[in-house]
């Protein structure tokens, strides 16, 4: 089922169950997807484009969560954690450390990287392979670890 249809179904269910927080997040996601559709001038977004929008929304919330934690804003932290959980439900399965490590090592071998100066080349090769399945900062740390070894 396409993501927009899934969001519509989940929105109806959230309304019936009176889940205000979940409903609000679903509406935000739908609006973001619709804005992206308008921006790109497409009738329908591809899965990659939908994933990009979801990843962007998730990243924004995770960044805000760190800020709120450092400011000790407990009222906002719990709200953001709920939003993150709802968005993550629509994201693809996240790679485990072992799976990610396998992708990193094979990509480093593919591009013949040997030092830190090859970092950009490795990252450019990895990102399309793991789009939406791993956080960029996590990938970056793992690539650095392997290029330093």
Automatic annotation (TrEMBL):
Family matches, as InterPro entries: Asn/Gln_tRNA_amidoTrase-B-like, GatB_Yqey_C_2, YqeY/Aim41, YqeY/Aim41_N
Protein name: GatB/YqeY domain-containing protein
Record organism: Lentibacillus cibarius
One Pfam family, short name: YqeY
GO MF annotation, one: carbon-nitrogen ligase activity, with glutamine as amido-N-donor
Classification lineage: Bacteria, Bacillati, Bacillota, Bacilli, Bacillales
